[in-house]
Amino acid sequence: MTIPLVDLVSQMREIADDLAPDLERVLSTAAFIGGPDVARFEEEYAQFVGVEHCVSLANGTDAVELALRAVDVAAGEVIVPANTFIATAEAVVRAGGTPVLVDVDDDTFLIDPERVAAAVGPRTRAVVPVHLYGQLAPVEQVVEALDGTTVAVVEDGAQSQGASRAGRASGAWGAVGATSFYPGKNLGAAGDAGAVTTDDPDLARTVRLLGAHGSERKYDHEILGFNSRLDTVQAVVLRHKLRRLAQWNKARRRAAERYLDLLADVERVRLPVVASGNEHVWHLFVVRVDDRDAVLARLHETGVGAGVHYPVPVHLTGAFASLGHTRGDFPVAEAMASSVLSLPIHPHLDDADQDRVVQALRDAVAR
Ligand SMILES: *Cc1c(COP(=O)(O)O)cnc(C)c1O
């Protein structure tokens, strides 16, 4: 694609000079697991989020799973939005729970607190609000809906590093926040990576044990754990990118505001809505159009790397057929799946390319 959906090459180019000596140090000393770079990254990311603890892990799916294990959802139910990346629901099953899907708000695409309240039952152990596309779900309303229960809130902040709501960051709202540093996320590693954030020292310790074979000291395995470590190489890359994240998110915000402005008069394009109180970091810029697949094909023909997040809602995937849902169960998520279209957005998108995307979209929906 001439205009890609994301541009990781420009990110790497921007950090290349700073990164080279650190990378060389890690490679030449062969210190690949743990060490001061990992510890530093954890401190810096905790500070960035505004929490006491960050535990780095191998990827974001592990982060959601281990966060859910730490609050203990085994044999219980976990409420999850019907339109999210499949990993959110996978993590619930891997943690021993059953996903209970709820539909989302038609304007913001975020979990609907009233539907959460209606879905809470005696077996509910946790709710996972997903901060989809770069803005926070209405977490305080979810917390309110859970008032008087022991149900834990575990944030899925994989798409929202640096986003905030009422001044409080993604990852600082729930009992635990899980996030992913998959390369294409707002803060992305040079491979797989993830983390959880929390103010609770016990939950932080449990996640750390779970990710390190259940052990704090070598060969002392207190609980049954897993191997989910952040590589030192990834910590080094993440530290250099974290320093630039606020500025990169600002560039995304500028691009998003430009799209909103340039597309405001296009009737056939439904623009994304920022929920009140939110500082959006535009992981994705998602519009809705009729006849989406035809529009997408026309954009691809003209070299515009638009995408679809996501073409199939969780309940209609083969993986979750066992939940027993049918088409019609989550009308908003289903309508989204057939109409959403992600336009190229990233910190290095220049105005000329963006103008071309806008023109291509105008042409594509006019046909
Ligand atoms: C990317 C993502 C994940 C999973 O992260 P990985 O690092 O790819 O395992 C989980 N939830 C959401 C919403 C995501 O976008």
UniProtKB/TrEMBL annotation:
Q: Which UniProt keywords apply?
A: Pyridoxal phosphate
A Pfam family name for this chain?
DegT_DnrJ_EryC1
Q: Which GO terms describe its biological process?
A: polysaccharide biosynthetic process
Source domain of life is Bacteria
User: Which molecular function GO terms apply here?
Assistant: pyridoxal phosphate binding; transaminase activity
Q: Tell me which residues this entry annotates as catalytic.
A: 185 (proton acceptor)
Q: Which residues carry this modification: N6-(pyridoxal phosphate)lysine?
A: 185
Q: Which Gene3D superfamilies match?
A: Aspartate Aminotransferase, domain 1 (3.90.1150.10), Type I PLP-dependent aspartate aminotransferase-like (Major domain) (3.40.640.10)
Query: Which InterPro entries is this protein grouped with?
Result: DegT/StrS_aminotransferase, PyrdxlP-dep_Trfase, PyrdxlP-dep_Trfase_major, PyrdxlP-dep_Trfase_small
Q: Family assignment?
A: Belongs to the DegT/DnrJ/EryC1 family.
What name is this protein filed under? Answer: dTDP-4-amino-4,6-dideoxygalactose transaminase
